Amino acid sequence: MKIKRILVSQPKPANDKSPFYDLAKKNNLTVDFRPFIHVEGITVKEFRKQKVNILEHTAVIFTSRTAVDHFFRIAKEMKISIPESMKYFCITESIAFYLQKYIVYRKRKIFYGRGKFDDLIDVLMKHKEEKFLVPLSDSHKQEIPRKLKKFKLDFTKAIFYRTVSSDLSDLADVNYDILVFYSPSGIKSLLHNFPDFKQNDTKIASFGTNTAKAVKEAGLRLDIQAPAPKTPSMTMAIESYIKKLEK
Asked: 10 Å Cβ neighbour count for 223?
């Protein structure tokens, strides 16, 4: 079987520097991008059911720009004025800078890590006296609250937004040789949109252990898995697979 068409279950890259474009050019492939999931903010009514008082907290931990957007959206809709004394802890510097969309950056106490939650923990431990609020998605990584508990930090986990399946009905009659997934939610969306999905000759590629697990639990065949020692990226794993098929 020759690989000709690949569907990546993510938004189309903002520029042409994606390694998928290099893969397509090098191997004469068609690569399409389509997000299988999207984010929706929860309503104020849903937020209130969690019985979380934003102003009882002295600091907020942000793990994504989406979390920033929905934290300030809920605050605005609930007519809550966030005090200037609120501290913000962000997993990356870019998320910290993104706060400028909502606050006067130079007037606030903002801290950030280097991209990994473990890095941020080091920063948080220097502020153990704070009462942290952690805005999350309904499908968040469990390691975040687990690590905060491990280091005995005073925190409240709250759901501000949810991940939902996108409408993929227009893809019903379109065939791809490889479907590429980066999250368990993507697999869930595939089966939500196509409950009678038959894999047959379609190859499934997954990135990360949780996604691979979701593929197998769905009763699907996992053909390409990344990262691996020799193929740390998804494009490298796909190219390696294509070369094996051509032998």
From this structure: 17
